[in-house]
């Protein structure tokens, strides 16, 4: 079978050419590359808000999600002149990369044209890539952990956030866990944000010791518990953004949810087939995140009190 002819999508004031639009990317229901582009158009404001002005690593699947996966830090060749980049430095290797820096939905659709399925932004922005403005709470279940346990831990995290006066914005991971994002003042480096995240994780573990652990080495963890992964706040560690599709045959989506949905939420229900209707009805549930900025100072005080340290970043 020959390749399907390219189509051109009008994306606000720009035009993006989609080659091979009928190539099946997600075999569970047969969604194509064009279906993926149309999904991102349907949640345009939300995906742009999640990625705006952030260095962004791309997970590309040139043959669809059952084929090879490419982790792309540097902007792929052939970008139109309106696609912006931001330069980031990798101290471990003393190298740099010019990564995608989304400011327009057309940037996202062009990345889809380049076979991108998943978008993994930094938790800092182009204005100062060394000062995160987003604290990420990653509730990562072990291989034998039930999702009911993840739900319980999320509600404990909500309780601690409320006592701190911080507003958390939850979402499904698109896989087996849950994420909670908190907008923070960009006043500290990655090491301090990691330390604050570790202090928070220890408090959640203290309140839910039968459900949570913070043991760093995977081989030492209880596979039935939830790991509160503080290291997702390390420099150049990224997780799938809100509204990012995941590279699974079912085309699940990392989807913002309300706190009152957590007791019954089933992440498998959020896919590129279902999220557009939900988005049309509810809008972006993370729309207020930039208005809820919080300082991590109380968590740094907890870290000092408990004499917590995180490993040096290399």
Largest sheet: 5 strands, antiparallel
What is the overall number of helices? 7
State the separation between the terminal residues, measured CA to CA. Answer: 49 Å
> Radius of gyration over alpha carbons?
19 Å
What class, by secondary structure content?
Answer: alpha+beta
Morphology call: globular
Strand residues, percent: 15-25%
Low-confidence stretches: none
Q: Find the count of extended strands (DSSP E, 2+ residues).
A: 14
Question: How are helices and strands ordered from N to C?
Answer: EEEEHHEEEEHEEHEEHEEHH
Helicity range of the residues?
Answer: 25-40%
Q: Could you tell me the mean pLDDT?
A: 96
Report on this model:
A hairpin with a 4-residue loop joins strand 7 and strand 8. The mean pLDDT is 96. 25% of the residues lie in helices and 21% in strands. Helix 5 (190-207) crosses helix 7. It has helices spanning 33-42, 44-51, 105-113, 147-164, 190-207, 275-282, 297-305, and strands at residues 7-11, 14-18, 24-26, 31-32, 55-60, 70-72, 85-90, 95-101, 116-121, 134-141, 169-172, 178-183, 212-213, 226-228. Strands 5, 6, 7, 8 and 9 form a five-stranded antiparallel beta sheet that branches. The longest helix is centred in the middle third of the chain and has 18 residues, at 147-164. The protein has seven helices and 14 strands. With 314 residues, the chain is an alpha+beta fold. The N and C termini lie far apart (49 Å).
């Amino acid at each position: 079978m020959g390749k399907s002819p390219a189509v051109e999508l009008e994306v606000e004031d720009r035009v993006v050419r989609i080659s091979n639009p009928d190539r099946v990317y997600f075999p569970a229901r047969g969604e194509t590359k064009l279906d993926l582009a149309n999904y991102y158009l349907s949640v345009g404001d939300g995906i742009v808000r999640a990625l705006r002005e952030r260095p962004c690593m791309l997970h590309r699947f040139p043959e669809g999600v059952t084929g090879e996966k490419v982790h792309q830090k540097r902007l792929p060749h052939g970008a139109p002149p309106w696609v912006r980049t931001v330069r980031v430095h990798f101290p471990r290797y003393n190298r740099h990369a010019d990564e995608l820096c989304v400011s327009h939905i057309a940037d996202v659709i062009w990345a889809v044209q380049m076979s991108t399925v998943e978008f993994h932004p930094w938790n800092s922005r182009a204005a100062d890539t060394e000062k995160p403005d987003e604290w990420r709470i990653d509730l990562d279940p072990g291989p034998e952990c039930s999702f009911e346990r993840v739900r319980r831990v999320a509600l404990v995290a909500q309780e601690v956030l409320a006592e701190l006066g911080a507003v958390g914005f939850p979402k499904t991971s698109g896989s087996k866990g849950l994420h909670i994002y908190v907008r923070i003042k960009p006043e500290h480096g990655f090491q301090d944000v990691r330390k604050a995240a570790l202090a928070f994780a220890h408090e959640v573990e203290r309140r839910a010791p039968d459900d949570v652990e913070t043991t760093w080495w995977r081989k030492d963890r209880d596979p039935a518990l939830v790991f509160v992964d503080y290291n997702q706040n390390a420099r150049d560690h990224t997780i799938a953004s809100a509204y990012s599709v995941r590279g699974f045959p079912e085309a699940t989506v990392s989807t913002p949810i309300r706190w009152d949905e957590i007791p019954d939420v089933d992440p498998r229900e959020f896919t590129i087939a279902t999220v557009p209707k939900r988005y049309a009805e509810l809008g972006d549930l993370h729309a207020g995140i930039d208005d809820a900025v919080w300082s991590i100072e109380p968590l740094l005080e907890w870290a000092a009190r408990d004499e917590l340290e995180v490993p040096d970043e290399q």
